[in-house]
Amino acid sequence: MQIAVSGANGFVGRALCRVLQGGGHRVTALVRGSPSIVEGATELVIPDDHFASIARGNPAIGPVDVFVHLAARVHVMQDGAADPLAEYRAVNVQGTLDAASAALRGGARRFVFVSSIKALGECEPGRPWREDDPAHPTDPYGVSKLEAERELAAFGRANGMQIVTVRPPLVYGPGVRANFRGLIRVVDRGIPLPLGAIDARRSMVYVGNLVDAIQLLATRAEFTEGVFHVSDGDDLTVPDMVRAIASALSRPTRLVPVPVALLRGLGRLTGRIAQVDRLTSSLRVDISKLRDDIGWAPPWSVAEGLAHTVRAYRAEH
């Protein structure tokens, strides 16, 4: 197949392009700014953040069978924009619809949109999130992702295009940045963490598992549309996550059992209650729909994914 991938030079995008090409597919890598050399792919530089140019056919993405949309304004903890929701909507809603218009212009039969579990909410409803649960996003990023999902579904119905939405939780793997990389660094340095009393479970997805699921949803011959959750299928507690990272690093685990109520009190005092709530609240996703309806199973276990992630971290240090 000829498959266009937006955000192709990002953390997930590069991994996806490699997997698609390894499966014999031809990739058009859509990147913003200067070319970044996505090896083996045909690169196309998009001159604007909102994809309005390719929606108008300039530049034309050429004939494509499937469009995978990864590009987004990502979640940030402290947004300095004057109107964060407007900024998120411009890129994540209008930009996504522009990408879908470009896909339609290019003849794509299917559009795969990588959303986020944050489109449903930040804390689970007492059990793993299912695809059809009522959505209650809590921040502008989650709101914009949910709006994009709904607008895309309407676009697909109006234009006869199959719309597939993938909602991952936390994504990790070689090259991961931000908080997950920071956690690896702290564990590697042997710094004690006050997380030993947390029993919350958090779904994660190794980047190799995520791109394997995306490839299957993008390329399967059967009619495919709808929303699908994806994860490693093994939801660790926060302390178990730290222990697994420590084991992969061959470091001792240094966990201090600080009561959760005290952690939340400190979070309120320091203005970091949102971060503390994320650590101390469960957030799991149910992947039975992807498993039962599509026949997908994660190729890598959590232990394998963390080992690959730590090995790449070690190689950089």
From TrEMBL:
InterPro entries: Epimerase_deHydtase, Lipid_A_modif_metabolic_enz, NAD(P)-bd_dom_sf. Residues 3-221 form the NAD-dependent epimerase/dehydratase domain. This is NAD-dependent dehydratase. It comes from Paraburkholderia monticola. The lineage of its organism: Bacteria, Pseudomonadati, Pseudomonadota, Betaproteobacteria, Burkholderiales.
